Amino acid sequence: MFDDFLFRSLLAGIGIALVTGPLGCFVVWRRLSFFGDTLAHSALLGVLLSVTFDLNISLTIFAVSSIVAVILLRLQNTTNLPSDALLGLLSHSSLAVGMVVLGFLSFIRFDIMGVLFGDILSVNVNDLLAIWIGGAIILLILWFIWKPLFASTVNYELAEAEGMRPEIVNTIFTILLAALIAISIKMVGLLLITGMLIIPTTMARNLSNNPKQMVILSIIGGLLSVFIGLYTSFEINTSSGPTIVVVALILFILSLMGIRKKNHG
Amino acid sequence: MSNNENVLVKISNGGVQKNGKWLVKDVDLEIHKGKIVTIIGPNGSGKSTTAKIALGLIKKIEGNVKRFTNKISYVPQKVSIDWTLPLRVTDFMVLTENLSTDDIKYALNLTGVEHLILRNLRDLSGGEFQRVLLARAIAKKPELLVLDEPVQGVDFAGEVALYGLIKKISETLNCGILLISHDLHVVMSATDYVVCLNGHVCCSGSPVDVARDKHYKELFGEKSSQLLSIYEHDHDHVHTSEGDIVKNV
Fold first, then answer.
1. Are B58 and B22 in contact (CB under 8 A)?
2. I want to staple A203 with a disulfide (CB 3.0 to 4.6 A). Which of A4, A255, B60, B234 is the partner?
3. Is position B95 within any domain?
4. Is A164 on the interface with B (CB under 8 A)?
5. How many Å apart are CA B84 and CA A24, to the nearest integer?
6. Looking at beta carbons, which residues of chain A come within 8 Å of B8?
7. What is the C-alpha separation between B11 and B65, in angstroms, rounded?
8. Is position A214 within any domain?
């Protein structure tokens, strides 16, 4: 039974790392890490809705995060507030609203720590299906919009002038991000999913000199974090989500030596 | 300037307002296949804005703009690459269109920077970067090429060579070029049609006509109209980026 559950969590972790690698690169390139945080915080509301009304958890989180993303894009177009202020507004208010709603739902047994930091024990076969099928769809769509998305990341106006439709691919990318959060909340937790997105990616940046290499290295970094993190969390009995992120951090620190070497010859 | 088959872009009465102020107003402009249209004018006169109108990058405009091609290349006035994005010249060349290695090298060779192909974009000097931007735009073999100050930061010898190259491109690819420039002296000789802008079209026409126009003289000074003569001679050679002389074939 233990093996079975170890195997399940490993499969879940691998599935998530395969998706966070490439998406994380775009999050870092486009300076969207705070945006990822905002979407993740809004996931708490999604979790509560799904528990209260007995809905599919991944789909509910996906819907709520997507709505928050749309609200954000709207606010950006209609107000003059800088986007970091808007993000802070949405991020913390959705977290706060979630916690207040949770107070009303005292009749429900609810593991808040599991939602915040991930709970590997709760990963069941349905979650695995959500991660692998959802992840495959995310990667497939990302594959199709890769060129226009990349071009508009490098230079928005250049991409638009040359017929790349950056506005549409940006929106699609936002939805992919919401979908990733939806499938990975249970595993990594909503406070840590952004770490999973950007820490292996920043490690990869330290070691790479072209975009393709950076994507591959950030996938490898994510996978290593999952393997070592899961193993460690079972061995020393720590919570899995934070342990995975701590391993990613250690990999990042090691990669800094790679930079130093490069700079000195 | 009217031969409808050859029109690539037509701006009629184009204008852009921002916070109640006109950035540019009443612009009529046509870009034709195989012809170079140059926009000149002081800072803030609406040159880049006009280019963006032509490209459809500004949605809220007065008047209207029609584009008859979608094979477009654009060299923006400013491109900055974030440190988080490791991007080599060769990756940048295929940004909006897949090209063979030979095509990439050929285009880089034309602008004299083939040796930089594996360098990171952030490590290039300003002039080198402009040459890469131009090479990328050319490599796509566009029908319409919009160049917003394409030779900024390039040394003088290189400037002359690159304008020569732009002229040659318009002929060999038969593409229409919209060129924005400060370098009156060089540009005036390498262009078919000049639009002199200062919030609106001050004067326009062939380089010779514009140089004699009193609005032009008011904007750029009496001396500038004599600059034209400097480059009214034929070239029998070009210069590479290292300054070597290569005979025209």
1. no
2. A255
3. no
4. yes
5. 12
6. none
7. 4
8. yes
User: Does B1 have pLDDT greater than 50?
Assistant: no
Tell me the helices (H) and strands (E) count for chain B, helix number first: 8, 11
Is A165 in the B-facing interface, judged by CB distances under 8 Å?
no
Q: Is A153 on the interface with B (CB under 8 A)?
A: yes
Of residues B72, B82, B84, nearest to A161 (C-beta): B72
The pLDDT tens digits for A9-20 are 899 999 999 999
- Chain A's closest residue to B71, CA to CA, is A162
Task: Give the predicted TM-score (pTM) of the model.
Answer: 0.87
The Cα-based distances of A256 to A206, A209, A226, A253, A259 in angstroms read 7, 14, 20, 5, 5
- Structural domain including A247 reads 2-105+117-257
- Tokens at A46, concatenated: 């999604």
Contacts of B72 in chain A (CB under 8 A): 161-163
* Shortest Cα–Cα distance, B214 to chain A (Å): 35
Q: Which domain holds residue B199?
A: 1-71+144-149+176-234
Q: What is the CATH number of the domain that holds B62?
A: 3.40.50.300
Chain B residues 56-115 with CB within 8 Å of chain A: 56-57, 70, 72-74, 76, 79, 81-82, 84-88, 91-92, 95-97
Whether B117 contacts chain A with CB within 8 A = no
Residues of chain A short of pLDDT 70, as ranges, are 1-3, 121, 260-265
pLDDT of res. B249: 43
Residue A199 phi, psi dihedral angles, 5° rounding: -70, -50
How far is the CA of B43 from the CAs of B79, B145, B146, B199, in angstroms?
A: 19, 22, 18, 10
**B84-127: pLDDT as tens digits:** 999 999 999 999 999 999 999 999 999 999 999 999 999 998 88
The total number of structural domains that make up chain B = 1
Task: List all residues 6 or more positions away from A37 whose beta carbon is below 8 Å from its beta carbon.
Answer: A87, A91, A194
CA A97 to CA A64: how far, in whole Å?
13
